[in-house]
């Protein structure tokens, strides 16, 4: 199985020690997002975990723990955007810290295992298309040689949590033609720096520009990294345009402390603060302790590796 850590929160940034303790314990408990009384017990043995995908905006706290993951294959989805404290209030400096962290991570585990995410792309009076072109080029220059791929997406205001914050974002609508024009220019910048561009869950006709659909939970990449076949099924819990293979997410919503204004995974900063305070590194749950009325179900876990020759 593939573990997603996590679409719902930034585990490397805020919960690295807890995650490593769970690896050592060999399991993690994950409440159902819709019914917290229902709890899944997830086996984290390397015998059944074929790979881990880390989603993060700041993996610096995880770097010292990487030797503890020697028995696992993993890669990072590392988001580096051009926004300031107005939209990403709790992130460290991009130029002084995060870009260097990206380079350090790539040097440590290899550039094919660190994927740059430049998303979401949003347009307002401050963050104009020209701003994005300049910022994208600047970051791409810094990351040249430290990654092979950049994933882009335009902000999706259909998420109810994004929609709730939309007034504060002061978004400007751009039509399909304008999006394609911007995406095409980003491709040219990326190609000159040895980067391929993929798009995350997009319905735009981007392939003629050289932008293929991304698979953020990517069985093809795991096949290359593991040098064996992987049984891949599309994740039915994601949007139709999503190319990800099935995985098990061990995160919890409303637990990320970055405070990004466009976030889809946080909907109440008061709840976020409460959850952060309830985190116990010794607990098998990411947040708090097991409820007395909880029903624990052990998830069936099997390796997806296949004994077939890769061509």
Task: Briefly summarize what is shown.
This protein has 311 residues and is of the alpha/beta class.
Characterization of this structure:
This protein has one domain. 29% of the residues lie in helices and 18% in strands. The protein contains 8 helices and 13 strands. It has helices at residues 11-14, 16-25, 94-109, 129-143, 160-169, 176-191, 219-226, 269-278, and strands at 2-5, 27-31, 38-43, 51-56, 74-79, 114-121, 149-154, 196-199, 212-213, 229-230, 248-249, 295-298, 305-306. Helix 4 (129-143) runs parallel beside helix 6 (176-191). The chain is globular, with a radius of gyration of 19 Å.
The number of distinct β-strands equals: 13
Q: What's the overall geometry?
A: globular
Poorly predicted segments: none
Count of helical regions: 8
Radius of gyration: 19 Å
Mean pLDDT: 94
Distance from N terminus to C terminus (CA atoms, Å) equals: 23 Å
Helix proportion? 25-40%
Q: Note the run of SSEs as H and E.
A: EHHEEEEHEHEHHEEHEEHEE
Largest sheet: 8 strands, parallel
Give me some keywords for this one.
alpha/beta; 29% helix; 8 helices; 311 residues; 13 strands
């Amino acid at each position: 199985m593939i573990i997603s850590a996590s679409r719902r929160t930034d585990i490397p940034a805020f919960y690295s020690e807890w995650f490593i303790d769970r690896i050592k314990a060999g399991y993690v408990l994950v409440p159902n997002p819709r019914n917290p009384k229902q709890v899944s017990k997830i086996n984290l043995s390397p015998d059944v975990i074929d790979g881990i995908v880390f989603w993060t905006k700041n993996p610096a706290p995880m770097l010292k723990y990487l030797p503890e993951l020697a028995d696992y294959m993993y890669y990072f989805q590392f988001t580096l955007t051009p926004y300031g404290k107005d939209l990403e209030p709790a992130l460290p400096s991009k130029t002084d810290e995060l870009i260097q962290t990206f380079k350090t991570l790539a040097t440590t585990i290899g550039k094919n295992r660190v994927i740059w995410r430049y998303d979401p792309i949003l347009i307002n009076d401050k963050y104009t298309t020209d701003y994005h072109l300049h910022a994208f080029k600047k970051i791409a220059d810094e990351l040249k040689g430290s990654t092979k791929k950049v994933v882009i997406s335009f902000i999706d205001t259909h998420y109810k949590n994004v929609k709730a914050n939309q007034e504060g974002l002061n978004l400007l609508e751009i039509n399909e033609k304008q999006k394609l024009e911007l995406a095409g220019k980003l491709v040219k910048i990326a190609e000159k720096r040895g980067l391929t561009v993929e798009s995350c869950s997009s319905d735009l006709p981007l392939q003629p520009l050289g932008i293929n659909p991304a698979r953020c939970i990517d069985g093809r990449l795991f096949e290359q990294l593991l040098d064996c076949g992987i049984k891949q099924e599309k994740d039915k819990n994601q949007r139709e345009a999503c190319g990800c293979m099935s995985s098990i997410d061990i995160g919890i919503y409303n637990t990320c402390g970055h405070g990004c204004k466009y976030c889809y995974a946080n909907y109440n900063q008061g709840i976020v603060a409460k959850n952060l305070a309830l985190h116990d590194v010794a607990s098998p749950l990411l947040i708090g302790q097991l409820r007395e009325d909880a029903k624990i179900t052990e998830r069936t876990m099997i390796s997806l590796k296949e004994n077939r020759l890769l061509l």
